[in-house]
Every structure is written in structure tokens, then in C-alpha cells.
Automatic annotation (TrEMBL):
<dbReference type="InterPro" id="IPR003593">
    <property type="entry name" value="AAA+_ATPase"/>
</dbReference>
<feature type="domain" description="AAA+ ATPase">
    <location>
        <begin position="162"/>
        <end position="347"/>
    </location>
</feature>
<keyword id="KW-0963">Cytoplasm</keyword>
<dbReference type="InterPro" id="IPR050053">
    <property type="entry name" value="ATPase_alpha/beta_chains"/>
</dbReference>
<dbReference type="Pfam" id="PF00006">
    <property type="entry name" value="ATP-synt_ab"/>
</dbReference>
<dbReference type="GO" id="GO:0008564">
    <property type="term" value="F:protein-exporting ATPase activity"/>
</dbReference>
<keyword id="KW-0969">Cilium</keyword>
<dbReference type="InterPro" id="IPR040627">
    <property type="entry name" value="T3SS_ATPase_C"/>
</dbReference>
<keyword id="KW-0813">Transport</keyword>
<dbReference type="GO" id="GO:0005737">
    <property type="term" value="C:cytoplasm"/>
</dbReference>
<dbReference type="GO" id="GO:0030254">
    <property type="term" value="P:protein secretion by the type III secretion system"/>
</dbReference>
<dbReference type="InterPro" id="IPR020003">
    <property type="entry name" value="ATPase_a/bsu_AS"/>
</dbReference>
<dbReference type="Pfam" id="PF18269">
    <property type="entry name" value="T3SS_ATPase_C"/>
</dbReference>
<protein>
    <submittedName>
        <fullName>Flagellar protein export ATPase FliI</fullName>
    </submittedName>
</protein>
<dbReference type="GO" id="GO:0046933">
    <property type="term" value="F:proton-transporting ATP synthase activity, rotational mechanism"/>
</dbReference>
<keyword id="KW-0966">Cell projection</keyword>
<keyword id="KW-0067">ATP-binding</keyword>
Length: 446
């Protein structure tokens, strides 16, 4: 460029500043959450993002969720108030986030904007699409060694391996948030990514400041979308949390991903699917919901072969009316590598975390416990199961001590095992410590 005359140099600079042509469409109709967009065919496709001009505001973003002929159906990331027929629409590409180490200790929304009032957020050099695919099954690394979750009830009765995915099944108000805070503080991981999907707005600061605390927040990234936001934003909160976890996994970090909750993610998908005209199927959930669940959950786990990082996933599932066989819970249970059940009656009895260890299961336990640990676990389960079966008879006086040695042992040792499972939020544990405490409670030695 230096050997060109000045006029030609200026002309070349002006040409380089010219932006490419941008296709402009328009809103053809609005019904409920669905927006009909014409004029952008074939520039946009399913999953693409568009910008719409709205009266009184600059723009809103929407995602294309369906196509009918040359008309695209989009769902907005905000209210449709002020959106009129004929409003201009532009193609905005796919939604992505650009996480980096500076995100640790921060609270962000699904687009990567800070929510904690601590100023601007640095962006990474690589943008990650919210929608991504899981590593190829044939080239994916195997699960790693067992990991200390820091909660004795889980470490002993639902022992977890690095890269495993567990579901936390519970009704509302049983202590899921407190359990997640314990895991974020005490679990053996490099980074904790916490996705709050459809969270109550007033509870965000309480969770971050009281439950999570400075120690837990320092190594965490919190991605939040509150319950009053559009279903598209709530859905993207789960996808963004997964994308952030994948960033740290690809950097070789041991990531603990906690998502609260998969049920609200499914509800957001239901609203989007019904707005796009899908027929309601199982209890009002359209078929696309049950196709999206494995696409999200399968992204957690070990990385590709040769990648040192992993994503250990803990996904909460809200069970309506304590119905653990409702469609979302049943589908998630079949996808994950184990489930942990929180029981309201246990919490009402004063034992927290309120984990029902007899109904909880980790499918990887046989491969991560020593023979003596398996014996301790089997004996503890037998004692608790027998005590549960005989509790009413003992309480009513229908059982007389000495009638059955096994029942006498269960009545004697079950309270000590329950004490082992009782744990304060500030108290950290380990797998080895949990089994040592169980052995001591049952009067055996390791």
C-alpha cells in the first residue's frame, strides 16, 4: 500500500471500511411468544438469532425456532410489547459467550453480561456457541478416579467419579441450594460452574453471599436467569453454563458443574415448543423437550481422549408433589449416571442434608470402592433398611428386644449412622473420612 499514490491509498481505505450488505426482513405477525418474520429467507435457519426493532426501545433479540415456507417463527428474549407488524428484522448470527479466567468469582447472565455490579467483565479470545455437541462417544475419555464431594452422605452412599453425572431429585424447600453451596465450597475441583435456571430474583444475592460465601465464589462462575425472564433466556442460562464449563474443561481443569434446575430448563423448552406450534405430548411437554435433554446432559462428562479436563455434573430435578416418576424426572434419571434423592420427611426430622441414602444410587460405585469399603456400605444399607422397616413396630411397642438379633443391631446402630450423615454447611468431608466414620459408628475397624 505504501507505493500507491495518496489518492489511491485513501480510496482503498474507504473501500475497506464499507460494510457488507445486510438483509433486512420485517415482522409479519405476533401471537403470544411467537413472532413471524418474512424477508430473510434463506439467510436464517433454525437456531439463528435475529434483531428486531421495537417502538420506544432500540432492539430485542429473538431466536428462530421454526420455519413455514419462507416465513420464520422466532421467540423473543424479552417481552413483545411495542413490537408492531412491519418492524425491521436483521440477522444476528448464533448466540455465543466468551469465558475466560477473569469470570471466576463473577455472576453473569446467559449472554455474559455481569449481574454482580462489579464493573465490566473481560472476554476470552474464543467465542463458544451455546449450542454445541458432546465429544464423540468412541473417542471420549473414561471416567476418572473417585472425587471427594465433601458431603459424607454422598461420598459414602453415592460415591462419584470424576466426569460422572448425578441427579439431585427433590421437591421445593428441601435444601437443594444449601447442598449445592456445600458442594461448591468443599468438593475437590478446580472450578465450579453454577447455573441457576429460573431462580427467584430475591434469592440470587442470598445464595451468592450467604450460602456460597466468598470462599465458594472465589473459584466459581455463576450463570443466572430469573423466573420472570423470557423462556428463551431461561433456556439459554443452562446452555451458557454448560458452555462455560466446557471452556474450563478444554483448558485442562477439573470442573464441577451444578445446574438448578433441569426441570425449569424443560419448562422453558415447553413454552418455546408450544409457541412454535408443537403439539403437547406427555403431560403437556412437546416431543422436542425430551430430545433436548440428552443433548444438554451428554455434554457433561470426560473430555475427548487426551484432554486432562473433565466436567463432573450435578443436576437438580424438581419433582412435583414428590412424584419421582413424572416425565422430566423419569427421562433425566435414565440419562444420568446416578441419582440422589432428598426427602422432605428427613429434613422435617432435623437431619441435613436430607439425603435418602437408601433411595440414592451411583452407577459407578462398583468401580471406585475398595473391597472393605463395599462391605461397610452393604452393612450400613442393611442396617438402615431393616431399621426403616421395623421403625413403626418398635415405636408402637409391637417388637420386643431380643426377639431378633439383626433387628436389635439395627435399632442400636441406626441412630449412630444417622449422626454420621448429619453435617453442617461449614463442615467438609471426604470419601475416606466418610467410610472411616461409618465403620466407627457400626463398631467395626477398617
Amino acid at each position: 500500500m505504501r507505493d500507491l499514490p495518496g489518492a489511491f491509498r485513501q480510496f482503498a481505505e474507504k473501500i475497506s471500511d464499507i460494510r457488507g450488505l445486510t438483509a433486512i426482513g420485517q415482522v409479519r405477525g405476533v401471537q403470544g411468544l411467537s413472532i413471524e418474520v418474512a424477508g430473510l429467507h434463506p439467510q436464517i435457519s433454525i437456531g439463528g438469532c435475529v434483531r428486531l426493532c421495537r417502538q420506544g426501545e432500540r432492539e430485542i433479540h429473538a431466536e428462530v425456532v421454526g420455519v413455514r415456507g419462507e416465513v420464520a417463527l422466532a421467540v423473543g428474549g424479552g417481552g413483545v410489547e411495542g413490537l408492531a407488524v412491519g418492524a425491521q428484522v436483521e440477522n444476528a448470527g448464533a448466540v455465543s459467550v466468551s469465558p475466560c479466567d477473569a469470570w471466576l468469582g463473577r455472576v453473569v447472565d446467559p449472554t455474559g453480561r455481569p449481574l454482580d455490579g462489579r464493573g465490566p467483565l473481560a472476554l476470552g479470545t474464543q467465542a463458544r456457541l451455546l449450542r454445541a455437541t458432546a465429544p464423540e462417544a468412541g473417542t471420549r475419555a473414561r471416567l476418572g478416579p473417585r472425587v471427594d464431594l465433601g458431603v459424607r452422605a454422598l461420598d459414602a452412599f453415592a460415591t462419584c467419579r470424576r466426569g460422572q453425572r448425578l441427579g439431585l431429585f427433590a421437591a421445593s424447600g428441601v435444601g437443594k441450594s444449601s447442598l449445592m453451596a456445600m458442594l461448591a465450597r468443599h468438593a475437590d475441583c478446580d472450578v465450579a460452574v453454577i447455573g441457576l435456571v429460573g431462580e427467584r430474583g430475591r434469592e440470587l444475592r442470598e445464595f451468592v453471599e450467604d450460602d456460597l460465601g466468598p470462599e465458594g465464589l472465589a473459584r466459581s462462575v455463576v450463570v443466572c436467569a430469573t423466573s420472570d425472564q423470557a423462556p428463551l433466556i431461561r433456556r439459554n442460562a443452562a446452555l451458557a453454563a454448560m458452555a462455560v464449563a466446557e471452556h474450563f474443561r478444554d483448558a485442562g481443569k477439573r470442573v464441577l458443574l451444578m445446574m438448578d434446575s433441569v426441570t425449569r430448563f424443560a419448562m422453558a423448552l415447553r413454552e418455546i415448543g408450544l409457541s412454535a406450534g408443537e403439539p403437547p405430548a406427555t403431560r403437556g411437554f412437546p416431543p422436542s423437550v425430551f430430545a433436548e435433554l440428552p443433548r444438554l446432559l451428554e455434554r457433561a462428562g470426560p473430555g475427548p481422549e487426551g484432554c486432562a479436563g473433565s466436567i463432573t455434573g450435578l443436576f437438580t430435578v424438581l419433582v412435583e408433589g414428590d412424584d419421582h416418576d413424572e416425565p422430566v424426572a423419569d427421562a433425566v434419571r435414565g440419562i444420568l449416571d446416578g441419582h440422589v434423592v432428598l426427602d422432605r420427611r428427613i429434613g422435617e426430622g432435623g437431619r441435613y442434608p436430607a439425603v435418602d441414602v437408601l433411595r440414592s444410587l451411583s452407577r459407578t460405585v462398583p468401580g471406585c470402592l475398595e473391597p472393605e469399603e463395599r462391605q461397610i456400605l452393604a452393612r450400613a444399607r442393611r442396617i438402615l433398611a431393616l431399621h426403616r422397616d421395623m421403625a413403626d413396630m418398635v415405636r408402637l411397642g409391637a417388637y420386643r428386644a431380643g426377639s431378633d438379633p439383626a433387628v436389635d443391631e439395627a435399632v442400636s446402630l441406626a441412630p449412630a449412622i444417622e449422626d454420621v450423615l448429619r453435617q453442617g454447611k461449614e463442615e467438609a468431608g471426604s470419601v475416606a473420612g466418610a467410610f472411616a466414620a461409618l465403620a466407627l459408628a457400626m463398631g467395626s475397624e477398617r
